[in-house]
Amino acid sequence: MSDDFNMSMRKFLKQVGVTSQQAIEDAMRSAGADATDGKEFTAKVVLTVDGLDMEHVVTGQIKGRT
User: What is the extent of the structural domain holding 29?
Assistant: First the structure.
């Protein structure tokens, strides 16, 4: 793949990672300590790309702060 492709891919994935972490942290703060401390949450990301016939799903666990 080309350098331009790799750079645009990395830029997009970095944006996804940073903004997703911020959104999760904001949601945890909004829910409050009583709702999140020590609990485990299932997270799911669904990635689609317009113009390509693809759907990529990632699931995982996020532990609330203790």
Answer: 3-63
